[in-house]
Specification:
mainly alpha, 2 strands
């Protein structure tokens, strides 16, 4: 540009562009949703379908005693099989 005393400055460069999250279709209800990195649940299910129906309880009821007894019986059987004396 002859006669112009302005210097050319290029437009600022944007290094961080905003990308949209991928849009997925729920395998249960067919609803479209955005797959976000911190979304709980499965990647092919929408957040509503990913929620568990019944919360899993951490306390083990009366089955804990029977599991302990069964495990002890299994250990005893394996010990007898592995270390028995062949006569």
């Amino acid at each position: 540009m002859p006669g112009s005393n302005r210097k050319y400055s290029p437009p600022p460069i944007k290094y961080h562009c905003s990308m949209a999250f991928p849009i997925k279709t729920c395998s249960i209800c067919g609803e479209e949703f955005e797959l976000k990195p911190e979304k709980p649940g499965f990647s092919n299910r929408c957040p509503d379908c990913s929620v568990q129906d019944e919360p899993v309880s951490q306390d083990r009821g009366p089955s804990a005693a029977s599991d302990t007894e069964l495990n002890a019986a299994r250990r005893k059987a394996m010990r007898d099989l592995l270390y028995r004396k062949d006569s």
